[in-house]
Amino acid sequence: MSNFVEQSEMIRQETPERPPVRDNLERRVFRATAVVLATLAGAYVLWLLVDLLLLLFACALVSLIFLTISNAIRRRTHLPFAVALGITVFGLLGIIVGAFAFFGTTLQGEFAELGNRLPAAWSNVQARLQGSRIGALVLERAQGLAPSGQTLVNAATTALAAVGGAVSGLTIVLIGGLYLAAQPTLYATGLLRMIPTRAQGQAAETLDAIAVSLKNWLKGQALGMVFVGIATGFGLWLVGVPAAWAIGLIAGLAEFVPYLGILVAGIPAIVLGFGQGTDTGLWTIAVLIAVQQIQGNLVMPLLQNKMVDLPPAVTIFGIIAAGILFGVAGVLLATPLTIVVLVLVRRLYLEEDKHEVLASGDAPPAPPPPLNVP
Question: Distance between CA atoms of 287 and 214, rounded to whole angstroms?
Fold first, then answer.
């Protein structure tokens, strides 16, 4: 597979040199004005198309996942690219569908049991509160704050619409990622041809740095997700929490957004844990805290050589900023977007070399310094 630098060199060789154009003050003023107006108009159009751009970025991430696995298969089996890509796509789909099919029955049974236990638990709480004057006052105020039936119907309708939009968006991302992965050279060449010839070399190196950084981050994040899923499921299973492995699966998938996996899995885990008893609930909290501490202080530092070194503060504020600007999609893509921004800053503003940006074992080796021959 050709990288961006190789494609840039091929385009440069194919593009004929243009004769120099005589410049003057009027031409420079006109050009500067046109550039400013075009930049403002382009920024406005990009802001209007931000949802489409996020969708395209998600497709690029999925294609990067497909390409990374496909290239690994090709290196070991020497299969054609199309065959390796097909094995990758169907293998990943099989793993995801099989996991949900295996855990789906357990999840359904546990949530049904939780639904059956909640009314009895709420009745018990009501009976205890009615036994005191303060408790009765709290119940009276709580009933006044309870949402109406129409409010619940509207909330349910909104939730169903959001689920439908998420499913359709995921389908588009998978299909778009597959198309990008099937012909990466075509799209890489087309992207570079949109850049002025004199800037194609630097742009190609920057795009290569972004691709390698995202690939390394995906590798490290995948290992972190596996650890969170297995450790959470095993720990909850040891303390006797129902549907422990199902909760571990949810925690592992949600860990794609850093620090979100434990938070998402913590709510059902703690509810089910205290449903089994106070001791089980306390042990559940201890397991979740232990997994989070081990993952943040031991596992991820060991994986830093396989991913971009993102300080925790940068990651957290990047997630908050992306959530404010772009909503839920921004939160899901916040970390890879932060990586792209950091690479652009280091390459274009700090003017660091590509090999300085790629502090990873997977980065290509830096070229040797020139020899000073007298």
Answer: 31
CA-to-CA distance for 20 and 199, rounded, in angstroms? 17
Q: Are 266 and 248 in contact (CB under 8 A)?
A: no
Task: Select from 272, 360, 347, 274 the least CA-distant residue to 310.
Answer: 360
CA distance 117 to 337: 42
Spell 302-327 as b/e; 16+ CB within 10 A means b: ebeebbbebeeeebeebbeebbeebe
DSSP one-letter code for 314: H
pLDDT at residue 365 above 70? no
8 Å CB contact between 352 and 202: no
Mean pLDDT of 90-108: 73
Whole-angstrom Cα Rg for the chain: 27
pTM here is: 0.69
pLDDT cut 70: percent of the chain above it: 66
